[in-house]
Amino acid sequence: MGLSKHYGTGSAEVVALDDVDFEVISGEFTAIMGPSGSGKSTLMHLMAALDSPTSGSVFIGDTDVASLKDGPLTELRRDRIGFIFQAFNLVPTLSAQENIVLPLAIAGKKVDQEWFDRIVSVLGLGNRLTHKPSELSGGQQQRVACARALMNRPDIVFGDEPTGNLDSTAAAEVLSFLRRSVDEFGQTVVMVTHDALSASYADRQVFLSDGHIIEELRNATQDELLQTMARIYPRHDRLAEAEQSVNGKEPDGSASFVEWKTDSLVGVPSSPHSPSDDVVETDGDGTRGSHPEHAIFRDGSGAPEETELEDNDEFEQTTPRRAILN
Ligand SMILES: Nc1ncnc2c1ncn2[C@@H]1O[C@H](COP(=O)(O)OP(=O)(O)OP(=O)(O)O)[C@@H](O)[C@H]1O
Ligand SMILES: [Mg+2]
């Protein structure tokens, strides 16, 4: 509630999050979207009790995170929150199974075998549990990391671009697993993503811009998400088009830049419903399937705050623009 986060002071002060009210709905899959530097990670870190706000408060259930001392705060992070990182953070010397139960082993807790078996069956990795991470594909490794995050039945699982390092097939495996964890286990999942296709797996899509929530959708398809992104972030789209017409090629990264880009991994099936021997299928209701392209925001520079433009046309309504294909 009323969450703000400022970094630095004086002229160097950055307002990463500006008086944001946000509630994660239990049992839902929420995607937090927005261009680079819009405050997605900041919001997620505050909600996950990894960082404290400059002002405002974070509640996890009835617990005011700010009221907790170090010990209870560590317990809350361990017992009630699960994390999935962009880099899978698996222990290389342990098998998939050992990695999944590692947090419980560290906490000295007993493994609930029935729960483990359910997670593993949804995970679709039953025959790879004895494999080490190096013997698993990227998507398989990230599914192991997801299973690990779910193992202690956390109230919320947070992922900051959990599919950011994966190709589209592997990303689909992981997103399908997260979807099923919500549908079948009632897990609450919050995922930060640049990517319209990834966000289309979620029940709810929340859009950030310059530290504010500026739009929210429910059950949006990839196309609806792309259109919304083009409408609410027109400056990024226009910049991309201008750069394209000047250079006739991708931006060189010298200017700060966020563009729409269609992932053109050749020959890789990008639909969540693409056949693949161990892709875990989603519920097949059609609302999340049939996405023709894998479109992402792409940060060409890694320098988020230079995205300021001379005109503040963030909220300007424009007709949806095409995603740039190259
Ligand atoms: N530790 C920090 N010190 C100073 N400024 C920071 C710090 N962390 C984030 N910022 C700034 O706060 C703003 C929001 O950052 P944040 O990491 O939340 O963006 P993001 O939406 O997650 O971007 P990305 O998509 O690139 O990960 C940016 O302008 C960023 O430069
Ligand atoms: Mg981030």
TrEMBL record:
GO molecular function: ATP binding; ATP hydrolysis activity; transmembrane transporter activity
Region (Disordered): 265-326
Cleaved signal peptide residues: none
Biased composition regions of type Basic and acidic residues, renumbered to the chain: 285-297
A Gene Ontology term for the protein's cellular component: membrane protein complex
Segments of skewed composition (Acidic residues): 305-316
Alphabetical UniProt keywords: ATP-binding, Nucleotide-binding, Transport
Domain ABC transporter: 1-235
InterPro entries: AAA+_ATPase, ABC_transporter-like_ATP-bd, ABC_transpr_LolD-like, MacB-like_ATP-bd, P-loop_NTPase
Pfam families registered for this protein in UniProt: ABC_tran
Cited SMART domains: AAA
Name of the protein in its database record: ABC transporter ATP-binding protein
